[in-house]
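Archive maintenance. Older records in this collection stored only the sequence; we are now back-filling the structure field for every entry so that each record is complete. The fields below show one back-filled record exactly as it appears after the update. Entries are processed alphabetically, and ANK3 is next in the queue.

ARCHIVE ENTRY
Title: ANK3
Organism field: Poeciliopsis prolifica
Length field: 369
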Amino acid sequence: MTIPVPPLSGEGLTNGYKGDSTPCLRLLCSITGGTSPAQWEDITGTTPLTFVKDSVSFTTNVSARFWLADCHQIPETVSLATQLYRELICVPYMAKFVVFAKMNDPVESSLRCFCMTDDKVDKTLEQQENFEEVARSKDIEVLEGRPIYVDCYGNLAPLTKAGQQLVLNFYAFKENRLPFCVKVRDPSQEPCGRLTFLKECRPTKGLPQTAVCNLNITLPAVKKESESDAEDETEKPDRRHTFASLALRKRYSYLTEPAQSPQSPCERTDVRMAIVADHLGLSWTELARELNFSVEEINFIRVENPNSLTAQSFMLLKKWVHRDGKNATTDALTAVLTKINRLDIVTLLEGPIFDYGDHSIENGNVFCV
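Back-filled structure field:
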């Protein structure tokens, strides 16, 4: 087999194939077959190479993939090649980044970031939940299955755990949603900032990264509560930040005020389920199927809650907790949400909002019967 020698990676460098004692030209091989991803190994030391002009020839008796790589960090050749290969096999798509915002109070806002391959922005759940679109990018190339990391700058600070970075996994023709909250750093200044989307996780050291996309956002004004919620707000006019939607608050009164800190384990469970239900949207039926609910049970939930996706989602989670008992854990829910590609909710489960009200959780179990 003959393979062309790759171009030199920089001026004044040599690849060592003309006699250097430690050649940087490495022959990699993968014997995985079919459509399986390659698993590379360095066979330079066990395969005699013949150099003819600007090509390399060698003999093989196996059916495999071969890669001639020029790498000056010889011990890291396989790991660097694997990293490059994984990126090269990702399918590129043209997508838009869209950001929605809704003010919870004058200094805190809920944000929803999307990376979408279609133009169905107007059909998102956020349009029904009184979110406002605050930014939209042009078409940008993103890679299927790759994570996109999000940083926030300016007068806005994300409400996350120390060291936690916001991440959004992109899959074509899916609702790639990332929900999180931001706080205004200086209330005396305009509530604006910049969201930066990156291919790699934020480095602790090293050169700054090139952003996939930068979006400048300005938070919308705080809206007054709707007329349907006006009676509830009469007694507590300053209450704004809630863990559950209006439909759930009417049914579970203790969800209306986080400061009241429910003491019962089941009350805390309901709060956590309300958080998940508020984000599930149309995905609740897909989640129900993965949780092995029958068509009849799914239709019953629809009939019982005909006008609210959030209430349907909440009822599904209640039934799941009641049915599975001690097996209804956060870990179990995370596994199923990952399976249906709702990594945005998985990120929410791992965030500080889910530590609410209980610091003695063991074995990943934050639900109860």
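Update note: Residues 92-218 form a domain with the Immunoglobulin-like fold (CATH 2.60.40.2660). The longest strand covers residues 92-105.
Entry marked complete.
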